[in-house]
Structures are given as C-alpha cells and as structure tokens.
Amino acid sequence: MTLRVNDLKVYYQTLRGDVHALDGVSFDLADGEIMGLAGESGCGKTTLGKSLIRLDSRMRHVGGTVELDGKDVPIGDDEAMVPLRYHEISLIPQYAMSALNPTRKIGRMVNELLRARGIRFADVSEEFNRRLELVGLDTDVLNRFPIELSGGMKQRVVMVISTLLNPSLLIADEVTSALDVSTQRSVAESLVEFRDREYVKSMVFVTHDISLVYQMADTIMVMYAGRIAEKAPASTIINSPRHPYTQMLIGALPEVGSTTVQGRLEGIPGTPPGLLNPPTGCRFKDRCPLAFSKCSEQPPLVEIEPGHWAACWKTG
Amino acid sequence: MLELSHVHKVYRVGAFGGGRLRAVRDVSLTVKPGEVVSLIGESGSGKSTIGKMVLGLFRPSSGSITFEGTDITTIRGHAARKEYYRRVQGVFQDPFSCFNPIFKADRVFEMVRTSYFPRTPAKEWHGKVLDALATVRLDPGNVLNKYPHQLSGGQLQRLLIARALLLDIKLLVADEIISMLDASTRIDVLNLLSDLKERGLGILFVTHDLSLGNYVSDKSVILRKGAIAEMGPTARVFDNPLHPYSRHLLSCVPQLHRTWAEVDAELAANPPEDVVLPTAPDEESAPLIEAEEGHFVGIDQG
To answer: Is B256 part of the contact surface with chain A (CB cutoff 8 Å)?
Structure first.
C-alpha cells in the first residue's frame, strides 16, 4: 500500500471563518495505481493534491493522517516535510508552463534545483537525458530558455524534472488542461509510461475532464464539496456509476458523436454549496433528485462491492 | 447572411514588426440564419482571429467579409459601427473578466439601454430584460442586483448572452464560451445555443473541443495553421473524416466509452480510404476540393 489517507481535514482560514475545503477524506492508493481525481471547481480536488505535499500559509491541517509506504507523513509540519518533498512525494503543478524560471536556461535551472536538494547533476544527467528522449525531446533543450519551447514541450520538461528522483507518489494537477488535444494525448501517454517503467510508484491525477482520466487512470475518485462521492475502477465509474452525482455528471458530458438531434443532455441544476458554513448531512442533497429524509444525516463512505466505494444512503 | 470570401490575415511579428505571420489563410465560409457553424482548431489555427475579424475588431489583410450584403470593412464612423453591433455581437471565453467588479452585474443591461434604446421607458425595458433572462433560463431574483463575485461563471456567461439578445441580433460570435465552465453547467449553455438557433439566430461557435463542436453545430470547419483542412455538415465530418489531420485529431480526443487503444485498433483494422487532397499553387492560397456534396477537404500542410 503506497498511500493511505485517513479522515483528512484541511481548512482555509479566512476573515469570515474557516472554509471546509477538505472535510474527512479517506482513501487508499495501491502500488502502481494511477488514480484520477475528478470533480467540479471548488470541490477540493486541488486542495487534496496540495495538502499531500505542501500546505500554503492559508491552509490549516485540522485532523486526519497521511501514511506513505507505512511511514507517517507530517503534512502539518512544513519543516519536517522538506526531506520528503521531491524525493518521496513530487508534484507537477497546475500551470507547469509557468513553473520554469524564465531567466535561466533549462539546464542551469535543473542544476540549481538539484543542488538545493543535495544532489549533483552529474550523477543523474545520464538518466535525465534518457528520460528526455523517452518523452520525445532532444537533449538540446537544456541549452534553451523556456520561452523557446512550446507549451507541450515545457509540460514534458517539467514532467521529467518532477519525476527524476523516482518518487513514491506523484501529484499531477491539471497537467493537460492547457494543451491541445494531440499534445494532451502524448503527455497523458508518457505519464502512463513513467508508471509502467516504475519511475513513479503511484500517481494522483487531478483533472476536471473525466473522459481524459478514463483513458489513463486505473481508478477514479469523484469529489463533491470537500468530500468523496465515489471511488471505483475507471470503467465502473464510467459505465455503472452508483452515486447520483457521478451519474448526473457523466450524463452531462457531450461526446464525439452525440448531438442535440439525438437527444439533449441535461446539466445538474443548482450550484455546489458554499464551504464556509457547509450544510449538514449529505452535501449533494439540494441538487439530488433522489434525496429523501435520511439525507439530512451524513452518509458514510462504504464499500458497496470490492473496490467500489460510494457515499450515498441510496446505494448502501 | 455572413459570408467570408478568401479572407487572409497577416500579422507583423518580431521586435520591429519585420516578420510576417499568416494567421488566416484563404478562408471562405458562410453562416446562414438558424445555423450553428463550429470553427474547430488547436491553438494557433486562426480560429479566434476569424471570430475577431467578423466582430470588426481586426481588419482582414485581404479578402472580404460580407454581412447581409454589406462588406463590413467598408463600415466607417461611430454611428454605422454601432448599427452593425446592433445585429452582430460576441461573447468571449472568460466571463469573470468581462464585468467591472465595482458595479453590479446587471449594469451591462443598463448600458445597452443608454446607448441603443435611450427612449424606451424604464418599465418597458425592465420587461425586455426579464424576457431575455427567461430565454437564457436565469431566475431574475437570483441574478439581478448582484455583484459579479456573487454569481457563478455559468450565470455570468448567460447574463452576457442575455445582454446580446436584448439587441435583436442576427449573428452571435461565441468564442470559447464554455471552456471556463464546469461540466455540470457547460451543457446548459450549449443547450441554450441550440434554443437560440431555433429562433433563427446564426451562431459562429469557436472552440478547441471537438466533442462540444459536434454537439451543437450544423456545419463544422476544422482549421489548421490558418487554412481550412476540412469543412462540411457536422455529421459527415465526424463520421467520415477525410483529411488526415482531422482523422488524427479525432483519434486523440479522449472519449467516454472507448479508450485510445480501442480507437487505434479500430483504425488499424479498417484503415480509411485516402482522398486526393488539393495542392496549393503558392504560399498564399488554400484551395478546397468538394469530396462529396457540401463536404470539402483542404490542402495538406504536413
């Protein structure tokens, strides 16, 4: 078991009170598993990704534990996290395109980055070049400035840098959202290749695009308003979702081949609840067509069949 | 209604404007009333440039854009331009940056009234606003008298469409209007476009997402490096893509019920027949060949 998150709570501090961005999230991530993390904006998916590596100054660890390879990860303690970052847990940030220092050539930037982590570039340069070639880049990029590379190339450079030290856990946050469809496919396929070659042990792939995550992930976890709605193998989530939110979300996606003539798709009425004072009970109940009296109690996340977890009274 | 004929746009690039970049190359297309035309392309394909030229924000370098019989490049002067915008309006990608955060969001309606309908009494105007909001399926109680930060992206985007509707427009240029919205509200805006189409509005729908273009449009235009790669009725373009570039694009789109491997295997099992592509006689033109009725393929740009 690579990663085990147990009842994790992370709140944002604001002047008006705490925003309950992550409110009791528990899940496991197996060795070699790529987990897609999907949901609407503001559901807490980026917060979950970030809290596994670094809490920023507004975020507060309220409760819950994170274990990686059997060892406790002190996510609330910024200092204690330093040795883990990059070596054990690594991140491809949301805007990887702007993650590169524009005033340094790529090679020099990587060199400085590695020195800051106590590694000599000469020791890893061979591996670095091999991986650049694997993602289809020329080693010549090391002598170039970020501005000379296209978006897809920058994304791949960041991908190689982030995974250079073979981390146990890689968090990829919306890495393909800003790319064109054909580049998107090659970046997604390289990430799977990295897992297959065991450069990374397991991966959390945060995205809002469920059809993309279906192409590459082993399991998909759908979040809603700071909680987990459903987690299951990718094909189960797409073909037989059980939670009403997942069902409606998948029903709202147009596909290549679906047109208004064949029948209209329906959106989900309403908006997600504010998390400053989250509602009690099930957080989806106001938008849910199946809501009944019991929904005023919070539904637990239960395993309805092996590997398939859902938090809804109707599925239990 | 709207007709583009051999439109080119060349930008000056580089530090002193010495370089030339051909953003739009020999594009000809039409939009009829009650028709949704999707302009689909990757970044740098010139799709937004075409939208902006139709809105009169840029002038084409050569070629003509005619709207209801008038060449829009000949429209000069404030009054004439204002008259043009009474019939043609645009909605853009980022609804959050279209509003001034200091004022309430419904101020956009009042601005339309002061510049276009100064003589309409307040009461009658309010009725028109309510009608427009009903068309975009917004509840007036939820959106009027609110500041932009109190509304969601989908609500703001629909407010902007309602604002365009107040002007009795004939053509709407929708430039990536749903890429900033969440999956659950996206489809509502798409359905709204198809309602508007039924009322006889022509829509130029600019998008990079093939599945969205496919969902609403009657006609699809796939652009590559400024030139048309393929153009035709949406069903034909998506069922039987003829240009190698369109086939490549379609094979890369993540689909919900089929994986990339399955799509590739299918393509390998029955490889599509190759069609003859036109060749460009020079660097500037981009001729089209009509492969089947109303279905055109363009030049191969490697």
So the answer is: yes
